[in-house]
Amino acid sequence: MTRSICMKKWTITALSGLLIGLTALAAAVQTAHAKTVKDLYPLLSDRFIQSAKLATLEDDLILKTDTGIVLTQTRMEKTLKQHDPRLKDQLENNLIFFAEQEILTLILEDEVKKSGLADKDTVTQEQITAFLQSKVGDQAVSDKEVKTFYDENKEMVGGMPFDQVEDSIKNFLLNNKQQTAVRTHIHDLGQRHQIRINKKWMDAQYNRMTDNPVDKARLSGKPSMVEFGAAGCVPCDMMQPILDKLKKKFPDTLNIVFLHVRENQLLAGRYGIQSIPVQAFFDASGQEVFRHTGFFSEEEVMKQLKKMGVAQ
């Protein structure tokens, strides 16, 4: 009897150990194949957090990295209070991007400290800028690039002579190249720090984030052309008749959206709008396939739509 009882105890213990082992193995397999942000949220497939893995985290925890960096909702709420209260609704509708900026700042601060550029616990914006500059190197813009941009966007500069706007255009194009190089480096940082993000929080925020004309168009299953502009902007006003004509020409096969950037500052910021007008083209899956800055003639628009298979 005693032996029988001991055998039962051993069996239960062995089974318990086996179950614990299998549970751990299942967890490891699940982690290895965890869904990422770009897998579940298609409109975020080009963002810094695109490779972040979805996970079940503590309620107050939004993000954390395998290198020990964390972002809590408590920190987010404190930071939000420092912003213009008039932007409260826009901020609350774009908390994913706000969180993305916060975790990026924390990662960059960590990278600056490791690089030795900061000799104190507090990292300044100037030190972060210097760190990024050291990583992307010098960028250059050719005279041909400047002249080509001028020829294609004379309306954007008010028809001024080339020699009067050459330097401004060169600085504009140089800034764009620098921004592209920085984005590439930042994307690599996101993959290297292996971010995990609270899935419950992401599900709620993604639904809220996409409740706007641009994202609704991208999720509609149809190709889209989005004009980022503002009333009173001369090249923007020149684009309006073209947009109206396109709406009539492709009522069922193409989304045409105009977004007033002054009324939607955060949404415009999400899309990296630095000058207007900007025409952004998205395919049926919602992915951006082409972007143009400045006045875009109807002829050029149609060429792009043909490439996308919208026009014949």
Structural write-up:
With 312 residues, the protein is α/β, with parallel strands linked by helices. Among the domains are: 37-139 and 193-203, no CATH class; 212-312, Glutaredoxin (3-Layer(aba) Sandwich). Helix content is 55%, strand content 12%. The protein has 13 helices and eight strands. The protein has helices at 2-32, 37-40, 73-80, 88-92, 95-115, 125-136, 143-152, 162-193, 199-209, 213-218, 234-249, 265-270, 298-307, and strands at residues 53-55, 61-65, 70-72, 195-198, 224-229, 255-260, 278-282, 288-293. It starts with a helix and ends in a 5-residue tail after the last helix. The model is unreliable at 1-10 and 26-32 (pLDDT under 50).
Find the structural class using helix and strand composition: alpha/beta
Largest sheet: 4 strands, mixed
What's the end-to-end separation, in Å? 87 Å
| Rg on CA atoms, Å | 25 Å
Share of helix, binned: 55-70%
- Uncertain ranges: 1-10, 26-32
How many alpha or pi helices? 13
Strand order of the largest sheet: 1-4-2-3
Helix and strand sequence = HHEEEHHHHHHEHHEHEHEEH
Determine the strand fraction and express it as a percent band: 5-15%
What would the principal axes of the Cα set say about the shape?
Answer: globular
How many strand segments? 8
What is the average of the pLDDT values? Answer: 86
